[in-house]
Amino acid sequence: MSDEAERQMQFLYALRSRGVTEARVLQAMEKIDRGAFVRGIFSERAYEDMPLPIPCGQTISQPSVVGLMSQALRVNPRDKVLEIGTGSGYQAAILGQLARRVYTIDRHRRLVAAAQEVFTALGLANITAFVADGSHGLPDHAPFDRILVTAAAEDPPGPLLAQLKIGGIMILPVGQSDTVQTLIRVTRHETGYDYEELRQVRFVPLLEGLGQD
Ligand code: SAH
């Protein structure tokens, strides 16, 4: 077996053993090369199940967390999805395989530009990245079938709740930064919202306004 095939097998095995079992999610993660989203000295660790540093003091999430969040979001092929926290663009690329259309927002211009470059290089044409404060959502493209937030807020931001379709699902980590946060699933009904706690996670904080670079 080639080194690459072996590496791929171990990558998928780690995902399965941590609970990523949905076929569509595994296929997406098999197809999208995480190595394309990690630059510099950490690139050789791209296939390990760990978070890694990316520019602007941010992190690309652990692959198993990307898989579990994508699974928890229950994405349908016709869905329009909003992601808050583009970071490297890896999670958006996975969502792009599961959904019809993906909009992703980050407060750092530099991260958005780098992610957009990778989307173009890989021919991922159904993803668009924007520089903006994601806590306001993306009113011009709302409402969304699914919303995924990859930075932790103390509470679900009101504009994001408002931009979810009836029947829509939002997954987000809530809690204080620097401590363990809880990943929750919010489902919007005709008359309100349901909240379910899924697991403990640790994300960088959702910050206000735009970043310096
Ligand atoms: N999903 C990313 C990892 C996200 S790290 C990936 O797959 O690589 C969290 C990201 O959220 C960081 O890039 C950070 O800049 C961004 N972020 C934090 N607060 C934000 C806000 N208010 N609006 C938009 N992005 C925000």
TrEMBL record:
Name this protein carries in UniProt: Protein-L-isoaspartate O-methyltransferase
Active-site residue numbers: 61
Lineage: Bacteria, Pseudomonadati, Pseudomonadota, Alphaproteobacteria, Rhodobacterales
Classification via CDD domains: AdoMet_MTases
Top-level enzyme category: transferase
Family annotation (PROSITE patterns): PCMT (PS01279)
Any Gene Ontology biological process: methylation
Keywords carried by this UniProt record: Cytoplasm, Methyltransferase, S-adenosyl-L-methionine, Transferase
Sequence similarity: Belongs to the methyltransferase superfamily. L-isoaspartyl/D-aspartyl protein methyltransferase family.
Source organism of this protein record: Poseidonocella pacifica
Cellular component terms per the entry's GO annotation: cytoplasm
First-listed, main subcellular location of the protein, grouped into a coarse class: cytoplasm
Pfam families referenced in this protein's UniProt entry, alphabetically: PCMT (PF01135)
Subcellular location: Cytoplasm
GO molecular function, one term: protein-L-isoaspartate (D-aspartate) O-methyltransferase activity
Domain of life: Bacteria
